[in-house]
Structure formats: C-alpha cells, structure tokens
Design goal:
The protein has about 300 residues and is an alpha/beta fold. It is built from 14 helices and twelve strands. The protein folds into two domains: about 210 residues, 3-Layer(aba) Sandwich (Rossmann fold); about 80 residues, no CATH class. The protein binds NADP nicotinamide-adenine-dinucleotide phosphate.
C-alpha cells in the first residue's frame, strides 16, 4: 500500500509485537473492527492460537529474532510495539528486558526508516515521576538523560528525523478492565489477600494515573492512523487517584482494612511493587485529547474496582 493511500485513511496491514498480551487483547479487535489487517508476533502455539481466534494472523517468533522482526516490519504498512519481557523483569533482570526492547525497536526502526510509515511504541507515565516534581506531568516532559525504557522512548521519538511517523504511547501504572489479568491492579489485590490488609505507603496521598484498557487501545489505533511524527501521547483517563483511595477500594472489594506501611517496610508487604507504591505521578492527557480527539468513554479505575470482577 502506498503512503498516499495510508495518509488518506485507508486500512493498513499492521505488524504488532506483544499482540497476545493484555493491551494487545483490546488492540487487535479494535484494529480489526476498524478494517485493518493484523499480523501478530507470537512466541508460543498458545499465543498464536489466541491471535488467530480473534481473526488476526500470527507469525511465530521471539523478540530476539531480529531478522524476523525486520522482515515483518518491512512488509507491513505500520507497526505497533507492545511486547516486553515482563518475565525477565519480574526475575530481576530489568536491564536485560530493556536491552531486548531497545534492540527490537532499533531493528524495526531501521526497517521503517525513510518510508514515512507509522511506528507506535509503548512507554510508561511512571518514569516521569523521576523528572517532574510538585506538578502534573505533560506530554512535553521527557528525560534527555536516558535510562531503562527511557532510551527506547527517546530512540522512537528521534525516528521522526529519519522519516518514520513515530509515536510513543505512555501507559499509566494501572491499565484496568476485565482483560487485566496480571497488571498492577490484580497484583495489589494479590498482596492484600496475602497480607490481610490493603497496604499504602505513608499517608497514601501520592497519586497514580490510570486508564481503561479499551480506551488505551483506541488511542493506539488513533496514533497509528494519524499521530504526527515524534508524538509523545498519554493514555490517561484519571490524572491521579490517591494511592490510599485505591487501597481502600481494594479493601472494600476484599472485605479487608486498608492500612499504612512505612517506606522502609513497603517491600515486605508490596514486594516488587514497593518501588512504585509511594510514587507520585499525576499526569495530564490534555494535549493527547486535543491532538487526536481522544476522549476516554469507559469506566474509571474506582468504578471498575467497585464492579467486583477483580475480586472473583
Ligand atoms: N498494562 C499496564 O498497566 C502497563 C502499564 C505501563 C506500561 N505497560 C507496557 O505496555 C506494554 C504492553 O503491556 P501488557 O500489559 O499488554 O503486557 P502483557 O500482558 O504482559 O503482554 C506482553 C506481551 O509481550 C509478549 N512477549 C513477552 N516476552 C516476549 C518475547 N521474549 N518475545 C516475544 N513476545 C514476548 C507476550 O507474549 P505471550 O502472550 O506469549 O506471553 C505478550 O504478548 C508493555 O511494554 C508494558 O510494559 C503496561
């Protein structure tokens, strides 16, 4: 398909890494329902079957199969990168996971350079907490000094200078819905069950942004179809809910109390999430909404927690 056709809003053949995951499970149907074709990278028979059951095509391969990534990206009209080695991260190898992420993106970026095709990659709003203090973060904020995942975000934005219509969707700490089986919301619920109370750190007034998975998926589609090259986009519905309020909602769902823990004790009650639990990262999506006419329409985090399905 020519770039002129794509620019006119024609449907695309889209290559997606991580298509079988949480966000992918909303994005693949979102793209198919809007007339696009989807080819998803699948590292197992089970993941490949998920994709074909949804009506997408699957190509078997791992993030490390750079030749396969290059070939699939070259043949596609656009690429969405969602895959991340969360298994390596959970095992303590964040550096290795971030390295694989950057290598995959560099391969895809090389394949798309000079084509003006879209590449939509993924980052997180959480990293903004390290560079923005005492105010709400916006799409203009970024860390020029780099770091894990920051290097990948900055690399993708810089691809705009190489004639790639690149953009990055920053997902909030909690992306929630019935599709969310192992994100931070179910993880917090698991810790609360184990502890017998829902923990928050200190006075719990630090704020976390959030979004519904289906709204996030729509933003990825809009970015793919029309985000200007070099856009940082925020998939944020609630700018920031106090962590104590989230803990109290989890407590209500489990019929358990919410209780403060000190920063020193957080790891005992919140495991690897203790690194994030005290984070204050209110984040605006005003620029994103204006740029792509994106308005969240699905229930917010507290409504989803009140619905009860997270506690079944
Ligand atoms: N969900 C959130 O709340 C949130 C918040 C901030 C940022 N993010 C980021 O958003 C992106 C998507 O998140 P998600 O929640 O959809 O994650 P997820 O449910 O864990 O899905 C991860 C996807 O990556 C694939 N994958 C993992 N390792 C791979 C490898 N070595 N080779 C090929 N594929 C591999 C998985 O394949 P399998 O199906 O085979 O396992 C799955 O399709 C990630 O970059 C994540 O870090 C998510």
């Amino acid at each position: 398909m020519s770039q002129t056709d794509i620019a006119k809003g024609s449907t695309m053949r889209v290559f997606i890494t991580g298509a079988s995951g949480h966000v992918g499970s909303a994005l693949v149907p979102e793209l198919l329902h809007n007339g696009h074709q989807v080819l998803g990278l699948a590292r197992s028979d089970e993941s490949a079957k998920r994709l074909t059951d949804w009506g997408a095509e699957a190509i078997r391969g791992d993030l490390h199969d750079l030749d396969r990534l290059r070939a699939a990206a070259t043949a596609a009209d656009g690429v969405v990168h969602l895959a991340f080695r969360h298994d390596a991260m959970a095992a303590g190898d964040l550096a290795g996971a971030a390295e694989s992420d950057l290598a995959a993106l560099q391969t895809i970026g090389d394949a798309l350079a000079g084509t003006d095709k879209p590449l939509v990659s993924t980052s997180g709003t959480g990293m903004l907490a390290q560079i923005v203090r005492d105010r709400t973060a916006t799409e203009d904020d970024f860390d020029p000094n780099g770091g894990y995942r920051v290097d990948a975000e900055n690399y993708v934005i810089d691809l705009a200078a190489k004639s790639v219509r690149s953009s990055v969707v920053r997902l909030p700490q909690i992306t929630h819905s019935r599709l969310d089986l192992h994100g931070f919301a179910p993880t917090l619920i698991g810790f609360a069950r184990t502890n017998g109370f829902a923990a928050y750190v200190g006075d719990g007034t630090n704020r976390w942004p959030s979004v519904h998975t289906l709204d996030a998926a729509r933003l990825y589609r809009l970015a793919l179809e029309s985000a200007p090259a070099g856009s940082r986009l925020h998939a944020v519905q609630d700018e920031g809910i106090e962590f104590r309020t989230i803990a109290e909602a989890i407590g209500r769902g489990l019929d358990l109390p919410a209780r403060s823990v000190s920063a020193d004790d957080a790891a005992q009650y919140l495991g690897f999430l203790s690194r994030f639990a005290g984070m204050n990262s209110p984040t605006s999506s005003a620029r994103t909404s204006e740029l792509l006419d994106w308005q969240p329409t699905h229930p917010n985090l507290l409504a989803d927690l009140a619905e009860g399905f997270y506690f079944g």
